[in-house]
Backbone:
């Protein structure tokens, strides 16, 4: 998944991020961090000093602000209908159904939420947006995405769904997951943001689509059983506002970034108590101006302990 590392193009000489005056209006707008985002920054600071268990309580009440209240309207892009929610689902969020997917004879992957399902009232695409916010709200020093062993698996986990991340390359992680939690993970995914990947919502939507159109390998297994028909689990989000905290793993300056995400996602029904093994691997052609051949691969094995 691209989400576990900095976009290859953003370190390329051909990229425009550091060009003086480039996307000036957007850069000015992005620097307008509202009280909503400042709340997220305080959460990040709390994690660094008090640990994830104390800090996650600050996310139990999602805080939502409309884009037009942020003053982000430039470059001919109307963001008035977008909202930013820097919170994650709290303990009062609806629990996911405990009815096993195998009850649906049309589901090729027993134990996996079907693509058209609405776990806790949200679609896969909507859950993917929450996952991206979870990823960008973590400072790099404690990020679950930058974790070779699984020691940071519990960072910023909140609500009925437990998030797992891929890796920039390979990783083998051991995680303890509370019993009764659904588990969401990307087989491989990507995102595009203004101003780095385009100037308009249309451009970043096309950018995100192009990334996943370039996927050349995708596979996932649970306890040795390969998941089937992963093409049916590709989801592209609507445009959303992505909050980035200081020193985030992706190298973004702190602020708010209009973004679109695309990827192949799996949400597991709550696993039984005990030991489970999850393997996910994906690869795609990453960027035309990087190495030849330009590919990105995530290959992760999780040893899950459900308690």
Residues:
């Amino acid at each position: 998944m691209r989400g576990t590392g900095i976009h290859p193009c953003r370190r390329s000489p051909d990229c425009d991020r550091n060009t003086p005056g480039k996307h000036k209006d957007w850069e000015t707008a992005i620097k307008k961090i509202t009280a909503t985002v400042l709340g997220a920054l305080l959460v990040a600071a709390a994690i660094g000093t008090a640990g994830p268990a104390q800090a996650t309580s600050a996310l139990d009440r999602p805080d939502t602000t409309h884009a037009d209240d942020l003053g982000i309207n430039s470059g001919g892009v109307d963001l008035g209908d977008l909202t930013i929610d820097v919170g994650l689902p709290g303990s009062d969020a609806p629990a996911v159904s405990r009815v096993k997917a195998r009850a649906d004879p049309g589901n090729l992957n027993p134990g996996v939420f079907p693509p058209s399902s609405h776990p806790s009232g949200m679609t896969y695409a909507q859950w993917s947006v929450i996952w991206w916010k979870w990823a960008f709200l973590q400072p790099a020093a404690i990020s679950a995405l930058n974790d070779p062993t699984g020691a940071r698996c519990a960072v910023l986990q909140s609500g009925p769904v437990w998030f797992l991340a891929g890796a920039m390359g390979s990783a083998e992680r051991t995680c303890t997951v509370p019993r009764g939690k659904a588990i969401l993970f990307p087989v491989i995914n990507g995102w595009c943001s203004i101003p780095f990947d385009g100037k308009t919502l249309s451009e970043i939507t096309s950018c995100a689509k192009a990334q996943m159109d370039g996927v050349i390998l995708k596979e996932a297994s649970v306890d040795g059983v390969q998941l089937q028909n992963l093409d049916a689990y590709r989801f592209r989000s609507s445009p959303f506002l992505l909050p980035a905290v200081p020193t985030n793993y992706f190298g973004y300056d702190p602020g708010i970034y209009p973004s679109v995400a695309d990827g192949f996602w799996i949400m597991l029904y709550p696993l039984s108590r005990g030991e489970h093994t999850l393997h996910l691997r994906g690869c795609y052609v990453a960027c035309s101006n990087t190495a030849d051949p330009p590919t990105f691969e995530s290959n992760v094995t999780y040893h899950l302990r459900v308690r």
Q: What stands out?
A: DSSP finds five helices and twelve strands in the chain. The first strand starts at residue 64 and ends at 66.
